[in-house]
Design goal:
Structural class: mainly alpha
Number of strands: 0
Number of domains: 1
Number of helices: 3
Distance between the termini: 55 Å
Strand content: under 5%
Shape: elongated
Helix content: 55-70%
Order of helices and strands: HHH
Oligomer: single chain
Largest sheet: none
């Protein structure tokens, strides 16, 4: 019988999870309802990572008006 490794235990799976977390943080930043600290707490990202994502969002012109 073939035994499969759970996705979250593979390098690729961990990267997919990380991408999803970053996309969630970007979506929360676009909504402009939470502070960077709140987004960091909700996603598990560091405040520095959230600030970096905000800068990336602004550079892409993704600010909601």
């Amino acid at each position: 019988m073939i035994q499969l490794t759970p996705l979250e235990k593979t390098v690729a799976g961990q990267e997919l999870i990380r991408m999803g977390i970053k996309n969630t943080a970007l979506n929360l930043l676009k909504m402009q309802l939470l502070s960077e600290e709140q987004i960091a707490a909700a996603t598990g990202l560091s405040p520095a990572e959230v600030k970096k994502l905000r800068r990336k969002l602004r550079s892409r012109g993704g600010r909601k008006k």
